[in-house]
Amino acid sequence: MKRILVGVDGSPEAAAAAEKAAELAKAVGAQLHIAYVVPRRPPPGPEAYVPASDRHDLVERHYAAALLHDAELRCARKGLVVDSETHTGPAAETLADVADSGKFDLVVVGHRGRGGMRRTLLGSVADRLVQISHKPVLVVR
After folding, report:
1. Residue 8 CB partners (closer than 8 Å, separation 6+)
2. Are 9 and 92 in contact (CB under 8 A)?
3. What is the number of H-type helices and E-type strands within the chain?
4. Which residues contact 30 (CB under 8 A, 6 or more apart)?
5. Are 84 and 33 in contact (CB under 8 A)?
6. Nearest CA among 64, 63, 12, 59 for reference residue 34
7. What is the CATH architecture assignment of 3-140?
8. Taking the domains of the chain in order of start, what are their residue ranges?
9. Nearest residue to 95 via CA among 71, 128, 67, 62
C-alpha cells in the first residue's frame, strides 16, 4: 500500500477517519492524501447576479482550506508525507473518481452513524462510496 485517500468534512467522524488513515499510513509507509468535496450548487437563477451569492462559495472555499490545513498539520506531526486538495461534486462519486484517477490503494471515510430511516431519507456518503468505489474503502465509526 503506497497511497491512502481520506475524505474529510469537518465532522468528528471524519476527524476519526483522518486519524485512522494517518495511523495506517505511518504503519505501512504510505503517502496520505486528504480530500474535501464541495457540493455542486444547482444552476443559479436571477439572484445569482447579486454579489451575496458569491459569498457562499467563497465561505465554503475558505472553510475547506482551513479544514484541510488543520488536518494536514495533525497528520504531518506524525511524520507523514501529506498533501490535500479540494474537489467539487457529489461527495461519494467525487471521492471514488479521485481514488481511481490518483491511483490510491485505499479510501478512508467516517460514518455519521445515522439511524436507518435518516440514512434512507438523506443517504450516506460512506454507504454510497462502498457501493461504487473500485478501490477498497475503510469506514471508520
Report:
1. 14, 15, 17, 18, 34, 35, 36, 67, 68, 71, 110
2. no
3. 5, 5
4. 1, 2, 3, 4, 24, 105
5. yes
6. 64
7. 3-Layer(aba) Sandwich (3.40)
8. 3-140
9. 128
Give me the sign of the Cα torsion angle 72, 93, 103, 136: positive
Residue by residue, pLDDT tens for the chain (141 residues) are 999 999 999 999 999 999 999 999 999 999 999 999 988 765 555 555 555 555 667 778 889 999 999 999 998 888 898 999 999 999 999 999 999 998 999 999 998 855 555 555 445 899 999 999 999 999 998
* 128 residue type, one letter: R
Using the structure block, give the residue that is written with the C-alpha cell 473500485. Answer: 134
